[in-house]
Design a protein that fits this description.
Structural class: alpha+beta
Number of strands: 4
CATH architecture: 2-Layer Sandwich
Strand content: 15-25%
Shape: globular
Number of helices: 2
Number of domains: 1
Strand order of the largest sheet: 1-4
CATH topology: Alpha-Beta Plaits
């Protein structure tokens, strides 16, 4: 399942953007995952300092 970002928790630090090997995350005001590009690797979940990213159910 693709990663999901909690927009209320996201601080737009871009740590997930920098670490995503699939380049599936973009960030303007908040991070957004392109589900069609996400490979479900979970790297962004581990990298997010505020735990705003989870793997979808």
């Amino acid at each position: 399942m693709p990663a999901k970002v909690d927009p209320d928790a996201c601080t737009a630090c871009e740590a997930c953007v920098d670490t995503c090997p699939a380049e599936a995350i973009k960030c303007d005001d908040k991070a957004v995952v392109d589900e069609s590009l996400c490979t479900d690797c979970g790297v962004c979940v581990d990298e997010c300092p505020v735990e705003a990213i989870t793997m979808a159910d």
